[in-house]
Amino acid sequence: MDISLSLFIGLVFVLAGLVKGVTGMGLPTVAVALLTLRMPPLEAAALLIVPSSVTNVWQLAVGPALYPLWQRFRTLLTGVCVGTAVAGIVAAWLRGPATDEPVVGSPLASAVLGLALAGYGLLGLTGWRMRVPARHERWTGPLAGAATGAMSAVTGVFVMPVAPYLQALELNKDDLVQAMGLAFTVSTLALAVMLVCRGEWQASVAGGSFLALLPACGGMMLGQWLRDRMRPALFRRCFFVGLVALGAHQLLRIATG
Fold first, then answer.
1. What pTM did the predictor assign?
2. What average pLDDT does the segment 75-81 reach?
3. At 107, phi and psi to the nearest 5?
4. Contact 31, 230 (CB under 8 A)
5. Quick one: pLDDT at residue 221?
6. Has residue 254 got a pLDDT over 90?
7. What does the alpha-carbon distance between residue 80 and residue 63 come to, in Å, rounded to a whole number?
């Protein structure tokens, strides 16, 4: 790997980690969008394995209240696992045994996801806010989790609808970021188990993925430092801008793919 490419990869992961540190999401999206300017998508995905996994675990571990959040959202997390399993089985059944096309990556589902992300982000930027009263969490949590798992099973992306749902609970910014880290970690594990069971896990050899971890963690530390100094209103704006950017990237990837 030449020096210029190494520097490019390092800067990409610093930026991606910065975005994740500020908003609690977006590292894979930012990294893949930029890395594919210089390398094939499969190589970019291989580089993401370690930084994405480690930063998700870090995000859920460094917050102020992991165990209370686990107790509060355990039914949501159970819903994620159930939704991933059921949607994976249904998608594989609809696909049929005669094709080698993978379950994850349906263009239609990805387009719906992109529109939902961008639409909700734009609504949030206009000042509109969805609110879920705490008394309704008992039934809305499992539904949001199951929908997130289903979306993850067919698109490989697990931001919707769990990120807007958690934001609608009006958590403070640190609890929101930690809760998203918890949900993203469980979603990643559930998706990985589904892919292994379906024989669709492609274990790319990516020694560079461990090297990419250092700039990603550095960028995330910087993002967390910035988040600690943000006013709540500014953090919400960054959160919604992040959703719009994720949705736009999803739609652009489909349009150019």
1. 0.74
2. 95
3. -60, -40
4. no
5. 92
6. no
7. 21
